[in-house]
Amino acid sequence: MIGLFAVTAAGRRAATELATWLGPDAVLVDGPPGPALRRVWDHLDAAVFFLASGAAVRLVAPLLRDKHTDPGIVCVDEARRFAIALAGGHSGGANALAEQVADVLDATPVVTTATDSTGSTPLDELVDLLDAAVDGDLAGCGVAVLDGAPVRIENPLGFPLPALPDNVGPDVVDPLWTVVVDDRRAAPDDEGSTLRLVPRTLVVGVGSERGVDRTEVTETIARLEREHGLDPRAVRAFASVDLKADETGILEAVQDLGFWYADGDELRLLTYPAAELAGIEVPNPSEVVRAEVGTASVAEAAALRGAAECAAGGPVELVVPKIKGRGVTAAAARIRPRGRLALVGIGPGAAELRTPRADAELRRASVVVGLDQYLDQVRHLFRPGTEERASGLGAEEARAAEAVSLAREGRAVALIGSGDAGVYAMASPALEQADRDVEFVGVPGVTAALAASALLGAPLGHDHALISLSDLHTPWEVIERRVRAAAEGDLVVCFYNPRSAQRHWQLGRALELLAEHRPAGTPVGAVHQATRDDQRVWCAPIGEFDPGEVGMFTTVVVGSSQSAMIGGRMVTPRGYRWMADAR
Question: In CATH, what class is 339-446?
Fold first, then answer.
């Protein structure tokens, strides 16, 4: 819950505007701010105060307990000039929220947390991204990063890291600090200048005799660290055959290891049918085990199967083959990190219509690929050290290929497009080339059809079709056949790419086809440069609409036979009138 607190009429107006953008999690809290804040404090993830900063400080100060659990606090002045992150900058998310609030209210974000105020990627954020345990002085290393000291980063498994400042990298000479991202134990550092981040990459497979003692299970698993150098805090889950789902010794050992190595978090025991494990190729099968339980391997096969489940289709490897204890076997498999490809829709233009998830992914990326004019719109969100790969109009296939290639190199890549990346944009050409060798993240955006619909009224209130009139990739004969089908089906039609200097007749022809199945008064709406400075919105009956007013940055919406202009707005009924007639 994001609580919004205001006492003046101007503050309440700003809070209402912000709540509309933040969505259902944002609540304008009623009543005097002091009692109201105390009433909801334990339920808050964040709070925004439309008050003087001093007043906000006095309200929250008695309630603050711990920066790791307190909500993020943001303060906005009466004139809406500044959005100030007062408390909970990193842990509470106040820094990111201040930037989002500033975007919506056209204010200036004020962030005083050291690493964020300089734009550096804070190490505690890196820890969160990797879901990693920490060995070493995180704060001390963070200060070194901020001060511009040389910091070497060692990433032997190849995790796709976010952008890092110039003083941090794999080739830094004479580092003051070394940051190691690995799931293996390292030799103690005598000078204390190494910071180790331990991601949870391992799944441990366990097999046992019936009635095995928990101590034997624990001791055998401990050998993964002692003899093979694996850090037990890297264990994400345990796995076994389903016949062992109620094996007390295994269950108790898993519970013990969760307490000691996972900060008290409960580690899962994944179990699988013997027939499923029998189909997994392993280096050390046993016919004795096959005769007893129906699979030639439990520990190795279960480790690989559990890692595959956790990897969600990504690559896995067996890093420790079966080791034997007294009545128990154990093996370890690793979830291999993959390069990351985020396909990010940045919306139709206005900053407040770009989603918070899109902002987060742009900060997460080490390289951003996109059309040059789109990069210009979001460059202020990039971390220092973010690499840009820009290209011009008409290079969509090349941009997609470059983004996929960079992700295959193990990079954290954001491929951006206007509107929604999956609607006539970059997602299709990218995913046509990407396989499971890269991690895919889709970030939806407000596409042109939705932005135009909201400005026109409610033209998409019933069944509708989106059709591109560009014949650069689709023959006109195919496009015309689709327009005819939409006309005969009485669908509302939203046209993308309706007209350009070289393609000037297609929109007129498409309107002729639709007019054959529409009343003469059917409204046609058009939106040019939706949500941008030179936005224009207009409507006309289908027989009077002039295609010559339309350009490449216009979205055209043609109503169905049921669409009408009501109160100056284009509306397509949901169909309830038909339901009433049927009764």
Answer: alpha beta
